[in-house]
Design goal:
single chain, alpha+beta, 14-stranded antiparallel β-sheet, eight-stranded mixed β-sheet, 26 helices, 31 strands
Length: 962
Amino acid sequence: MCQTIPRFPSARRAVNASRIPCLHAGCHRWFKTASGLNHHKSSFHNFSFHKSGLPVHSQSTSPHEGVVCDYHDKLTGMLVDSTHLPISLVRCTGQKCDSNGQPIQPNSPPPPVSEKDPDDWGPYGNQLRFETAEFIFQEAEMSASKIDKLLYLWGGSSNGGQPPFSDHNELYETIDATKLGDVRWDTFGLRYSGERPTDNVPPWMDEVYEYWFRDPSTLVENMFSNTEFDGEIDYAPYRDFTADDKRRYQNFMSGDWAWSQADIIAQDPSTHGSTFVPIILGSDKTTVSVATGQNDYWPVYISIGNIHNNVRRAHHNGVELLAFLAIPKAAKKYTDDPTFRRFKKQLFHAAMSRILSPLKSGMTVPRVMKCPDGHFRRAIFGIGPYIADYPEQVLVSGIVQNWCGRCVASPDNLDAGGPPRTAQLMRALIEELQAGTAWDEWGVDVNVVPFTEDFPRADICQLLVPDILHQLVKGGFKDHLVEWVGKYLELKYGKAGAKERMMDIDRRIAAAPPFPGLRRFPDGRRFSQWTGDDSKALMKVCMPSPFLNRVLHGGHVPQDIVQTLRAFLEFCYIVRQNVITDDTLSDLKNALDHFHYHREIFREVGVQVEGFSLPRQHSLVHYEALIRLFGAPNGLCTSITESKHITAVKKPWRRSSKYRALGQILRTNQRLAQLAAARSDFEARGMLPISRPRENVLQGNDEHEHAGVVDDRPVLAHSDVKLARCHGKCCLPVLSQILIFHEARGRARSVPALAIELGIPTLSTLIGQFLYEQLQCESISPSAGARRLPVFAGALKVFHSATATFVSPSDPSGIGGMRREKIRAIPVWHHGPAWYDTLFMSTDDTFNGMLSMEVARVLCFFSFIYTNGYSYSCALIHWFDRIADEPDDLTGMWMVRPSFMADGSKNLSVIHVDSIVRGAHLLPIFGREQVPRSVDFHNSLDIYRGFYVNRFADYHAFELAS
């Protein structure tokens, strides 16, 4: 075995063929060396299980056109021809079976959703009681006292009638009586049982560490049978190809890892035709309150790889809370004790092995499970990717800090790379090397045996996935590039000069015009603590224009620094795309090569003289391989688990009494799961509307990146959209819908009055030109007289805003990948300055990207009914011209400027809103001069005459404005 270990610096000793058994009760492991046995005993038998010490009351009582899809030919989970077929022609009916696992005819209908009566509302009794319980407990998150007050007022009102519940106790008891989704919390304890000192035994050695968990197999079965996932789930590994035979990676099952796992599973003929169900795990410590003491929790989440990435990102019961891990703590004098540190690592792996043990039998013998389409299929489980930030990856994989979990590159020179790190290699190192050698030369902690060793086909080193949030956004951008640029300015201009320049950069950031989902920074990038959202927001605003303007036109940093920033941002935005092809991977590699080449400037100028052997930057070299293995990274990012913290930990903690809060958090999560399961059941039985549209509007805060998330599917939202009869049609590969709403009060109601209000005397002519184009479907020549134009003299309605609804799965979006944003045209915003947004207009469908669109600024939304009986929804716009016919070489962004006529007047048009694609974000080209203090986000579009089209505003804009 030792001869298979690469890069070993000295001669190998012969492998000892003798077998040494472990004599621990119930253990059947054998080892080649005494050292291997000692490592095993230290890792696996250095603790003992104990019953929970928590009181009983803490426990709860209760298809793409033109895409070719190739499915795995053994673990299909479906019946398809083995030849390549367009996905739109494939009927994935599934290799179905009955509830006993016996095959049935492919065209057999699914069994009834439920044997219950159509009016059986379970413990709720009727629809009113269910929806009241759902609203009070899930949506309003009321406390017990507020619930009692609401029900009291309800019962005391003159026409309110009897309230659905007498008090909060009855409401809680009703939810607790819901059998659906009732996965009980269980607990176990672990305690140190290794060698102890003869006296002064550390208290942590006597502590029993409590772990709370739910049965993972039941959670997976509930998730797999959720009817909401029908059409958003894959029953087999597959490979997508474009029309020109290039790979296409999107959802998890489109990657090579699921395919290779199916190959291994299929070696057992009894598994043929079953469905492979990868178990996705994630863990991350979170703090709920610092002010009241360090209240830390360590939740573990579970999902399945079959559901699509957009479902997992939108949660929708696609990510479930599995467990709460203990966080061992000790007095300060024991914090750095090697025994305590080793024990904490071993405790994690022992607990994870125990928690996941109910899944183990299903990893070799298929289990019959009900699926979202109502049919039964046989399923084979497998430990899949583990979502974690770098410190958690170190713990999970058993490596040493600053080493890479995926390869054996030396931490002193990570850029040199190294052979892949595998479970087989790790086992060989643990058995063959001394602890110090393994630690120093291979980055392996021999005292840690990963929990995945207890499960078939699981290799933790191959299951560490990309972490866009911590590796790129927080790591590469915030901790590295932003800090390095600041250090460069200090080296070149001194602290005072650097501060002056950074203050000017802050003013430029603060002057960035508003944009939906884009956070404003009135003080620039000066805030005491950066969060992940802060970093993502500054990536959209700080680097693309205000910062680059300063360093470019001010000449304060070399162009290589600008190129470094651009290459890094392009890498970040490419990997965040929802669909990645071979061509995309080529672009990704080019961006990474440019980043590695240009970042050397930081070494040359003395900022990073020690080089770039940084684990988070090194992780970028693995992204291409990981995308090929697991599909698009946006479905496996720690942003999923961090956002789940809000609903699973932080909100339940806030509504608790704060005393012994964990038991209350567990109960809250269980009740939320029961309500969600009940709704899914009622919808499936036709008792409630299916997929009730829900929009995350974040009232009053459309700067948040999650504002505008639309919880619906594109086929439902756009099935009745009718495009206007306009000359320019929407030519972009996105679904888009523009809706005008909220008629403005006190605005003009006729064309002459609106012309006076806007100060545009030619408005009547512009409306005539618009009507001519609508009626004739052809352009008016510049020499055409106004007498030939249709005249509109009727009433009109003015609106302050419109909404654009579009498919943008790469951004935070709902289950169908949809977003909604406001486009404003308001003369007075909250008794202050005007707000006129800019937008993309679809103008030429013979080109792609920016060449198919124009940029304009909207001055007014209005609608009217013409004499032909048609209603026209319009926008008055001010056109912007491209400064050049290609993007700027250095920044990669298009540049535009306001368009004016020969007489100096604005180049205006009236257009139909159906030709609007979505909002556009422009950032001023500031030039060399410092930004005056009078310039802010309200007036920067009026003051400056040149702008970058910010393709980094969001991921959808990055794809559009190419």
